[in-house]
Structure formats: C-alpha cells, structure tokens
Amino acid sequence: MLRPPRTVAAATPLAVLLSLTATLVTATPAHAADPPAVEPRAGTDAPALVSGLSEAPAVGDPVAVARRHLRQGRYGIADVNTDLVPVDVVRDGSDETVRFEQRYQGIRVFGANYLVQMTREGDAHRVTGAGGRFLTELDVSTTPKFPERLALDVARSRAAARVGGDGDALTTTSGGLVVVPTGKGLLAWKVTVAGTDTRKHLPLLTDVYVNAGTGTPLFASDRIRTAAEGPIATTGTTVRDKTVPINAYQRADGRYELRDRTRWDGTTGEIVTYDAQGRDVARFQGTLPQDTPVVSSDVPTFTGGAAEIGAVDAHWGAGQVYEYYRRLGRDGLDGRGGSMVSVVNVTSYGQPYINAFWDGTKMVYGGGGEQYYSLASALDVVGHEMTHGVVEHTANLVYFGQSGAMNEGIADYFGNAIQVEAEGIDPAGPDAGLLGESLCRTGTPRQCAFRDLNDGRVAADDYVDATGRIDSAGVHLNSTIFSGALWDIREKLGAKADKIVLKALSEYMTPLDDFTDGRRAVLAAAVRSRLGARDLLVVARAFDTHGIRTGWEHRVATDHDVLLRGITDYYAQPDAAGERYVVTNSSADLTAPSAVYTGKVRGGKVERLSAPSELSSYDPVTDGRNAAWITYAETADGWKTQVWARPLDRSRPQRLVYEGDGDVLNTAIEGDTVAYSVWDSATGGYDLWVRKGDAAPVNVTPQAGIYSRAPSISKGRIAYIKLYLWEGGPRRMVITTRDLATGQETDLPAPQSPPNVIGLVIGPVLTGTSLFWLQDAQQDGLQGIMRANADGGSPVALTPDDATAPELLDMDATDTAVTYSVYPDLTVVTNDTLPKITQIPAKGGKAVRVTCNRGEQAQFAAVEGSRVIWIDGTAARVDLATRAHPRGICRAA
Ligand SMILES: [Zn+2]
Question: What is the CA(357)–ligand 1 centre distance, in A?
C-alpha cells in the first residue's frame, strides 16, 4: 500500500499520482569515501537515489552489470530480467549510465524509469549510484475489461468536449496497454487523438489514458510542444537579410537541396528541411505527407523564396543545435546520430501560422507576420524546440504539471545556452535570459520576449496551479521557476553548467519527476562531474533562491465555499439548477470508476446518484430535480453506450433512456424528457435524439447532411447546434430552437461571416425566458455572447463578436446573469492570466469577477440567480466550490 501524500503538488489527478510517488526526504549528495547515501521514495521500496556507492568492478555488458547490482534487496525489484527493459546506455568519458523502463507482467509502467550509474575501468564497470522511479507495490490485473474500441470512443468524445464540441474530424489511434503507477496500479489504454481544435485554431495531438477496467479517462498528455502560445498577430513574411553558412546537397539532376549530410558520416542521418508549400499545419502533426519536397534550388545559394519561408534559418539553426550537442558529447537529438527534420512554410486556415512546434519527430515552423519574423529566425527558439527532442530521448519528462514545466524549463535553458554560445552573448548580460527576444520586427527585446529566465519566480510564491485543460497543467506558466534556477547556475559557472544539466537529464531524471526530484538530479550530476564544494554550493543556492526544496507546495487563501473536496475525475464537469448540483468523481487513488454525485448548492451531504457499477459515468446534466448521464455496459449483444436518468431525490431507481452502438456526445434533461446526440457511424456525424418517458425516441435531425449536438432544454423547448453539410457545397452552422410539443423549429440566422468562412456558434443555453450562445463569425477564436428570446426572436449581441472580443472557454446562463471564463493569455505569466470566472447581467452590462482566487477556475455551472459552482484548482487540490454572489472587483495579484 502507498502511504497517503503529505503534500499535493498541483491540482490534477496526474499530480495526485505524482505526489503519491514523490520523495519526501532530501539529503545532500554523499562523497565517494562516505557510506552510501540512500534517499527513499514514498510508496515504493526502490530508493529515489542511492549515491556514493563504490562496488567492486565487474566485467561484462554494462546492462548485465547494472541488472546484477539491482538484484540487491534494497531495491525490492522482484525479477531484474523481466521487470526492467534497458532503453539506453549513456556514455560520458568514463561515466556510464544504463536507463531501464519498468515492465509489469510485460506491460510498460507509465513514467517508471530506473537508472544505474557506473564508472568504466578497462573492461570492467564499477557501480557508483542508482535511482529513479520503480514501483514495487504494483498489484493489478493485466486483462482489460473495458474494450479497446470503446476506449477510442471515450478518448475522442472527451477530447472533443475539451475543444468545444467540434470533434467530428478527430482521429484516434490505440497505443495499447500501460500500467499507470497510482496505488497498486491501474491498467489503462493509451489513445492518441489527433486533429484540430477548431475553436482555437491550434493543432491537437494528445495522448489520453483510459482506465481499461472502468472506462474512466484518467488524464491526457499533450504531444505538441509549442514555442509561443497565445496571440501573435498575423500576415506577411520575410526573414532578416543575414548571410549564414549552411550545408546543402546536390542531387543527381543537378538541383541543390537543404539536406546536410556532412556533419555525419552519411550512414545514420542528416539535417533536412522540407517545404510544406503553404499547406495547412494540421497535415504535419505527427506525419510528414509523402509528397512534401525538400527545399531545393537551381543554384548552390539559397536566397529569395527559400529565405522568405524561413528555410535557411531553420536549416542553419538545426546545424548550430547539432554542433552544440556534439560539443557536449551527444550525437544528435536522439544521441544516435538520427536525422534532424524541419518543415517550414505551413499555414493555418489559409493564414500565416505564427508559431512553431516539436511533434515528437520533427520541427514544424510557420512563417512570420506583420509584427514577428519566422520563429525559425531565432536561434534560442530553434534550440528550445529541438531540445524537446533531446528530452524525449533521455528523461522523457511527462508534458504535464511539474514534470512538464521541467521539460519546458530544460528546453528554455538549452535554447538560451545554444544562443549565447553561437552568438557570443554574455550569459550574465541583462537580455541573455530572454527567450524569443529577437523575433519582433519592432519593439525592444524585453517587450518582444515571451519568457525571461531571470524573472525571479519562486516556487512557493509563484507556482500557478492549473488543471490539465490549461497549458497541460501549467507547463509554460511555471517553466521559469525551474529554468530560472538552472540559468542562475549558468551565469555563475559558465558553460560547464551545460554539461551538468545534460548529465542530470540523461543520467538521473525520470519521466514523472517533480521540481524537487529535478533539484536532486542536478546536484547528483554536479557531484558526479566532480564539481568542487564551492561550485556545489552555487548549484544548491540556485534552487534555494527559486524556492525548489522538499515540501515547497503550500496552500493558499481562497474566498469560496467547498462543496466537494478532492475531485479526481480529470474531465469532471459540474451542472446545476435550482438548489442542486451534479458532478462525477472517482476515488483519491483513481481506482474507482467515476460515478455521479449530487448535493445541494448551499452545502451539506453529498449522495451518490448513479447505481454501483464497474464502469464510469460521464457528463451528468440536471434540471434541478432530475439528472441524466452517459455510461458504457457489456451486454449480451456486446459493448453498448447508454444514457441513464434518475430523480435527484433518489425516489426511483435509474432508468435506461438509450442503449446502442453509437457514442453519445452530450445530453440534456427536463422532467421525463431527455435529449442526447449520438454518433452515426454510417454518416460520420452526430444526430440529436429526444425521448419523453417510455415513448419511442425521435431523431430530430434525421436528414442526410444535417448533424446536430449540444442540446439544452427548458420549459418544453430545446435549443441545439445544427450543421448543414453537403458534398462540394456550402456548410452552415446555426442555433436552432424547437417546440417539443409541436415540433416547430426556428433556425436562427447564421453568423454574418466573410466569404469562404463558416461562422461558428457554440454551446446554446436555454433559460426560462431566454436563449444564450456564443458566436465567432470570423472563425478567429474570439467570441461574442448572444441572446435571443426562447423562441429565437429578437437576437442581440450582449458583447461584440469583433477583434476586441475575448477568447471564451465556456459560458452558462440563468435568467439573471451570463457567466463565462476566458482562455488564458499564455504569453504573460501571472496568476491573472489563468481563466477566472466572470459574470455580466443577462441583459448585458458591467462584468464582475466571481472569485478572486489564485489559480485556475475554468469549468463551472450557473445555478440560479448569480450563484455559480465551479471546479477550483487554487488550493493545490481540485475541489467543487461555490459562491452565492460574485465577489466583484479583485485587486491585481
Ligand atoms: Zn517548449
């Protein structure tokens, strides 16, 4: 059994599992002559770090020597041959490190790596240390109960809900089974979801882990590592007129290509730069279309077109990154001389794509714009992005929460280190810590940079808690806390710090490490590098200065009432009406399937509403007296999706509303009427069904080429989103309102959009008297709040849908007030940039803040009047919280 955590790092289920396995003890590194120092890790017999060992040298294969060492009882590893799979042997002078991945009955254990550090002496290897993360307490069935096919559906529909409902175009691929290291372990399906977040115009590539016993989605880890998130203005592209040396390749037909084989011996890899020829960025995530050409030229010099699309910058930058890592003793990003691939000249919806990302195998760059040069033109950005490739092939820090902030922080560090080396900048200079400072066409470096490693942030004071919905739980929001400490070391120790950070990354860190683990890894690497006592003190002080030491996580003040403490369901979305709320939740160790719970919005007892089941329930909705929700079941006819309903007072058992093969996206309820949108695999879209009591269900949108979703019911009316599609013709998206008794429907006018743009409408909410929805006519990700009468008459804009509009995450409404949260501006790192809940009067007017809490408050439900309930990630923990009335004005944090 795992001991309960003493500290909880960040407000997410993944963070819960991270903290369950976090080390609670930190010791100073031992010197070789002392007895070995053992730093335990909570919840497992395998220590976080054993240092100062001096074993007798052993001859043989280093993997065999490492395995033999790990047979010692202190590690608690039952079978070193089957439970450990070697993934890498890192050599640095006479230092040798073997990295193992943990297997449990042949299945990979998510994030569990264990390393053995050795010194080579002739043919022999002397073990000097070992450590990492190996879970000795796992005890879990490896036979999945929840089928893989449904796990794909769950992952697609949860990801679709996260990107605002337009999930029709998302594709899913199974990555097979993994064991998630929480409690005694959870068997999970890994599902990769790819597509486009049409609301945010962002590429989507995320791994969703679905409990293979219950169907609960446990957490998701984004694959896309972007350079600059958030708004950077658009159009136009030329790159600065600078001549740089590059290596190219002349083909048999005489043409020259941006293909650099001179840095290798030509057998393992190359630096190669492709031209996307202006095609959409979505086609280049995780794949490289076969017809993508390498950037080429008739003459050996690459000017004109190749320069304008940033190809020369990307190619030159990749060469600089390669040379930098080669000086540190590393052969390319993967350490094995593998190719370094860049793609330039992608667009997004026909507009310049002003961003760049690493997708796990290659770099993808958009052009620039009026205000910014191509992101390929800044060497710190190129270095940052390519370092994600180095991280992936070493510690593979999970892109989520603290480990994700370290992934970003290490990319920040090396991005800047590569730039100061190549451009001869003083690392202690005032602008040396800025990232992306050279990208602006106008403005000072400081105005231009999107991060500053010298921003002086301290973990306990400045760590901003976010759920997985925002910035992968704060990977960019919190990176400079860690990179700031690393950069302090760089400023004091110079280039030898680079070697230590790379050593920590490749020889000590493991995927689920938190900041405290990161500190331990860097210190251990510094000791192994034989740094003097004075320099070791510099390293320790840098982490002290940034507050990174054991137990830094602390609780902060809040101004809300807690309704349900400790929400662990990753996708928990509350709903409420009248006096009551509904929400799903799992158990603290995530082993229980998510069930529907209900309680009163004024507090008091929380009751379970859904019948006990081995499978999870999702997305409950309520009218204040009844609730409906979605689940799965194994029947005599195989696996089925189900919709259930039950009175909140539990006076009757739950009633089956729908059972079928199609995945259900959303539901709505009023009295005995339930609406639900069901995936039709024959047409590849969602249809909306309504069922009253035991009467036969009715398909409201049976027509071919018309899809529907997002129902809301009130007072015998239903409002929903209707999509008109037809082959080769126009496409239209409107809000429809329908009288359920007469079947009479009114399509509201489609948004007035520019030519060739389909205006978006989002999330209709029917209240007793009114209909509210969001509109994005320009498809620019900025939305206005709209209101009409319940029958669709007299539509008005409460807030304008223009260039001044905010990017809204969510909206809900009552007859009294409209409540919303705003997508964060991730280019400015403060508490205030995280989503907060805001409210305006239902007839329009001044906006007020619902709470003044620190951290993220994004997912909420309007109750009645101005009361709101929400999922709160402020107190280093996720709670369901409420306030009767908005707080009003908040002082700036
Ligand atoms: Zn990054």
Answer: 8
- Residues with Cβ within 8 Å of 79's Cβ and at least 6 positions away in sequence, in order, are none
Q: How far apart are CA 99 and CA 90, in angstroms?
A: 8
With contact defined as beta carbons under 8 Å apart, do 654 and 634 qualify?
no
Question: What whole-number distance in Å separates Cα of residue 70 and Cα of residue 47?
Answer: 11
Q: Is 476 labeled as catalytic in the residue annotation? A: yes
From 476, 491, 670, 856, the catalytic residue: 476
Q: Which long-range contacts (CB under 8 A, 24 or more apart) does 839-847 make?
A: 839/866, 839/868, 839/886, 840/785, 840/798, 840/799, 841/816, 841/817, 842/767, 842/770, 842/772, 842/787, 842/813, 842/814, 842/815, 842/816, 842/817, 842/818, 843/787, 843/798, 844/787, 844/796, 844/798, 844/799
pLDDT tens, position by position, 623-659: 999 999 999 888 898 888 999 999 999 999 999 999 9
Distance 354 CA to ligand 1 centre (A): 15
In three-state secondary structure terms, 799 is coil
How far apart are alpha carbons 722 and 304 in whole angstroms?
Answer: 47
Q: Is 803 exposed, middle or buried (0-12, 13-18, 19+ CB in 10 A)?
A: exposed
Nearest CA among 558, 642, 654, 665 for reference residue 598: 654
The owner of tokens 């010099």 is 301
Residues 30, 37 contacting (CB under 8 angstroms): yes
Number of C-beta neighbours around residue 506 at 10 A = 24
568-572, 706-710, 810-814: lowest mean pLDDT where? 568-572
Q: Which residues contact 638 (CB under 8 A, 6 or more apart)?
A: none
Angstrom distance (rounded) from CA 830 to CA 387: 25
pLDDT category, 299, cuts 50, 70, 90?
confident
User: Ligand 1 centre and the CA of 225: distance in Å?
Assistant: 5
Say what angle helices 479-493 and 496-507 make with each other, to 10 degrees: 140
Rounded to whole angstroms, the Cα distance separating 740 from 742 reads: 6
DSSP single-letter state for residue 291: T
Can you tell me whether residue 484 is helix, strand or coil? helix
pLDDT digits (tens, 9 = 90+) for 733-756: 899 999 999 999 999 999 998 888
CB within 5 A of ion ligand 1: which residues?
A: 225, 408, 411
Query: Ligand 1 centre and the CA of 282: distance in Å?
Result: 19
Contact 354, 375 (CB under 8 A): yes
Catalytically annotated residue among 39, 229, 257, 385: 385
Which among 242, 278, 233 is positioned nearest to 440, based on CA atoms? 233
Q: Could you give the residue ranges of the DSSP H alpha helices within 204-336?
A: 305-308, 311-327
Q: Per-residue pLDDT tens for 662-681?
A: 888 889 999 999 999 998 87
- Phi then psi dihedrals of residue 303, to 5 deg: -130, -175
CA distance 859 to 821: 8
pLDDT at residue 463 is higher than 70: yes
Which two tokens mark 131? 């450590």
Where b means 16+ CB within 10 Å and e means fewer, 448-475 reads bbbbbbbeebbbeebbbbbbbbbbbbbb
CA of 830 to the centre of ligand 1 (A): 18
For this structure, is 579 an active site residue?
no
